[in-house]
């Protein structure tokens, strides 16, 4: 892989990926993290790739503008917690305080993002463990472990051994969305597929899952715009 920069305001970093399978140039903008990747045939001259990028520049800038810039977490920024926006403020004492419209984070301002991220991960584990326990009990099938990650391509997964994995960023989403993802992954303990039988299990555990699934499709990518310095 290589990287080039498309000049302009702002400049756009583009990752060049050569592929033996590629028969033509293809441009991809990730809605998750805003990364731009140009896949090109292995023997194509780089100059042709640059020319292709310039042809697509207006399209690319329009889509980047529609996505919005990343939001770097710091005092003064608003972040969602369980679907409700709260302003990050300086706090006193040793513990982070959750208020109806604010998050008070004690300590130096340059440590606020890391401290808030740790608190959010702890809250996410509590909420996801409770939801997973409830759905697993209703299903009558226990899971073996629960892990949290900052995944880009999926909100959760279930292994054949019964291990559940979730994105900790689900704590930013409304509670019903987090609960749906937990029900979805627990349902895989009974149906390791996405067959009609699987969706019947999800509906039995959660109810009508369609609005929560639609929320993730339409709004979920925005949760990855919040950058905690990682």
From TrEMBL:
CDD domains (alphabetical): M48_yhfN_like (cd07344)
InterPro entries per the UniProt record, alphabetical: UTP_pyrophosphatase-like, YgjP-like_metallopeptidase
Domain YgjP-like metallopeptidase: 26-218
Protein's UniProt name: YgjP-like metallopeptidase domain-containing protein
Species of the source: Salipiger marinus
């Amino acid at each position: 892989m290589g990287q080039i920069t498309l000049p302009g305001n702002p400049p756009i970093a583009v990752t060049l990926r050569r592929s033996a399978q590629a028969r033509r140039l293809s441009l991809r903008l990730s809605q998750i993290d805003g990364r731009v990747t140009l896949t090109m045939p292995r023997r194509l001259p780089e100059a042709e790739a640059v020319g292709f990028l310039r042809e697509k520049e207006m399209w690319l800038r329009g889509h980047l503008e529609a996505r919005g810039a990343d939001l770097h977490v710091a005092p003064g920024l608003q972040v969602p917690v369980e679907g409700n926006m709260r302003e990050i403020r300086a706090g006193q004492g040793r513990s982070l305080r959750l208020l109806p419209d604010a998050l008070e984070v004690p300590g130096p301002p340059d440590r606020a993002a890391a401290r808030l991220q740790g608190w959010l991960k702890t809250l996410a584990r509590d909420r996801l463990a409770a939801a997973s326990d409830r759905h697993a009990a209703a299903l009558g099938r226990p899971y073996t472990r629960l892990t949290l990650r900052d995944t880009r391509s999926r909100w959760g997964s279930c292994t054949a051994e019964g291990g559940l994995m979730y994105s900790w960023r689900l704590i930013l989403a409304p509670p019903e969305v987090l609960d749906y993802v937990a029900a979805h992954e627990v349902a895989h303990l009974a149906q390791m597929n996405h067959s009609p039988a699987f969706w019947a299990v999800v509906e039995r555990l959660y109810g009508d899952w369609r609005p929560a699934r639609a929320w993730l499709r339409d709004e979920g990518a925005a949760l990855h715009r919040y950058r905690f310095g990682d």
